[in-house]
Amino acid sequence: MAASELRYRDGDVECVGAIANPTGTGKVPAVAIVHAWEGRDAFVAGKAEALAGLGYVGFALDVYGNGRTGSGPAENSQLMQPFLDDRAMLRRRLQAGLTALASQPRVDAARIAAVGYCFGGLCVLDLARAGTDLTGVISYHGLFNPPGTPNARIKARVLALHGYDDPMVPPEAVLGFAKEMTDAGADWQLHAYGNTLHAFTNPNANDRNLGAVYDANADRRAWETTINFLRECSA
Mean pLDDT for the chain? Predict the structure, then answer.
């Protein structure tokens, strides 16, 4: 496995992604990884490397540009909010990352999936809603609120991995997501983990006041589900 930075552009903004290629030669499936509200940090770079170990090209996108990361909740929110306010801008930034990934020599451009965490979960769901040519998208403890524009035909398989006690995504939001995906005719599934809060895959999450707490069992189960889902998508 070989890991490195990959710089790409969205207009005037330079983005700094983290790419990991598996050993060997020839084209293989790829997985784009979209970060949480902190920015493109070591967590998602590590996920890119883990996926490379499974035979995929893993690519952690940089949504904020210039490799920026927040120092805490206030700055994280400040970085994220413009993209929540302008979902069209968000889609353009994400598409720039996908275009960069598809151009890499080891990538089979017909077999690209996307995984997102928290804010990144919203991002990959927006890619599916826009009709992006992805084999599948996986939202880890993602936000479900739709962008407010009609969905295109959803081509990607959709998997949502959700903590049932996540205070940021209450049960009515889950029902709304289920109805949205069903109405769009998507091939979708949702796994809800009981007694589980937001950010359950992040070992550094330990803030019950925020509702974000790591859960080792849910993390393990979600990763096993992810492996099976990606195998199905890349077949």
Answer: 96
For residue 109, count other CB atoms closer than 10 A to its CB: 15
Which alpha helices (DSSP H) does the chain contain, by range?
Answer: 42-53, 73-85, 87-102, 119-129, 171-183, 216-234
Give the predicted TM-score (pTM) of the model: 0.96
- In one-letter notation, the amino acid at residue 81 is Q
> Looking at residue 22, what DSSP letter applies?
P
DSSP characters for 175-194? HHHHHHHHHTT--EEEEEET
Q: Taking a C-beta distance cutoff of 8 angstroms, is the pair 44, 18 a contact?
A: yes
- What is the 8-class DSSP label of residue 78? H
How confident is residue 66, by pLDDT bands cut at 50, 70 and 90? very high
Q: How confident is the model at residue 169 (pLDDT cuts 50, 70, 90)?
A: very high
- Give 6's strand partners: 17
Q: Which residues contact 115 (CB under 8 A, 6 or more apart)?
A: 31, 32, 33, 34, 47, 124, 137, 138, 140, 226
Within 10 Å of residue 174's Cβ, how many Cβ atoms? 17
**What is the token pair recorded at 176?**
């709304």
All domains in the chain, ordered by first residue: 2-234 (3.40.50.1820)
pLDDT in tens, 89-126: 999 999 999 999 999 999 999 999 999 999 999 999 99
